[in-house]
Amino acid sequence: MTPIQLSATLDVLNSALGFNAPADAVVSRHFRENKNLGPKDRAVVAETVFSVLRHLPQLDWLAGGEEGNKMPSTRDLLLAYFTRIKHLNLRELPAVFGDNDKERAAGMKGMALRDAPLNVRAALPQWAVEALLAEGKTEEQILELGQSMLQSAPLDLRVNGIKAKRDAVAAELKAVGDINTTLTPFSPWGLRVEGKPAINKYKAFLEGRVEVQDEGSQLLGLLCGAKRGQMVADFCAGAGGKTLLLGAMMQNTGRLYAFDISEKRLSNLKPRLARSGLSNVHPQLIASESDQKIKRLAGKMDVVLVDAPCSGMGTLRRNPDLKARQTPQSVSELNAKQIAILNSASRMVKQGGRLVYATCSFLSSENEAIVTAFLATHPEFKLLDAREILKKERVEIELANEYLQLTPHQHQTDAFFAAVLERSVPVAAAVEDSVDAE
Ligand SMILES: C[S@@+](CC[C@H](N)C(=O)[O-])C[C@H]1O[C@@H](n2cnc3c(N)ncnc32)[C@H](O)[C@@H]1O
């Protein structure tokens, strides 16, 4: 690491560790304000900052002393990172670290992580470990999960089926940018990119043949099963990652509503929509989940996706600062919002229609607990088995139960959760349907 890179890393970390803004926003702002940093410097600084944030519970412990009674400085966190995560020996430490630092680094080298508390070894916040233990996870499962979040996430692309085929896009990226990709193991539209090329400067991206999307998100599309000519609602559409996928699955036919309460996020959907070539999408700003617009669509939708606002704890590889930014209080506020949104969104589902509830969290309070609470008050809905649905789509994936629960160590995706619910058809209507079909 050069002195310029090291000083930029310390500056960015000092801001990021205030946890007043998402780490990626802090990094981007620093790069905008410091034009002297070249592409290589930026890559090194960003990678180091994110890696430090991923390992923060361990670095805090190493730099704060085993008793954990000292607030470590950013410099000490970085020292712990170099000695224990990058395994530099004392001679290899950047010159900015003097003899005193080296003495502390030697102390850190002698500390045995295996003696540290479980949350330190799993590199997860203590409250999250307590929640996982309370829901019955073993120590081994918690370690596996936490440690799988310590790597950087791969770059996955989704090929836009209305504009291109997967093989053609893979060949195009190879030809124009020498970008190597492999087919994602589960999603029929996914390409996993080798390295981290700036994909947004290539025509395949600019002309809407590909979007950046984690394979886990792509699988949600399969669970929704949106089809040609249907009425579909993406309830928490945000900037439309899943909207674009659903619109392509519908072959640009039917009607797809993209609801969100955030004007800013919905406005970020506009350029993506333009690139995608979709004209079946109707972005709808709503004031809340009980907006009149929702009420008017009661019982009209074939598919409703609720990609609920959540803690994002399943995306710790990309957003490691969430380890410090989320708290039990913030999760419990989200839980109240999640159930309210699911209750409201469910009204739009027609008989026989599908309601998919999804989060990017591994906490059962945001996942199974919400679905269980919903089903307890909505006997007109039943839980479908995600394994069956994916099997019909010829996706061979190992899942522990009827829910989709992905993890980085098992599926090489973010930790996503989804439950597929169906509004039962009343017996009388089911008989009428079968007579009509004859
Ligand atoms: C997990 S994000 C959605 C990400 C998006 N589906 C995608 O694939 O890019 C959750 C979204 O829910 C929205 N949201 C929060 N409260 C809401 C509410 N009461 N009704 C509808 N959307 C809401 C947030 O603005 C945010 O965009």
Automatic annotation (TrEMBL):
It comes from the Bacteria. The active site is at residue 360. The keyword RNA-binding applies. One of its GO terms (biological process) is methylation. Residues 145-424 form the SAM-dependent MTase RsmB/NOP-type domain. Belongs to the class I-like SAM-binding methyltransferase superfamily. RsmB/NOP family. This is RsmB/NOP family class I SAM-dependent RNA methyltransferase.
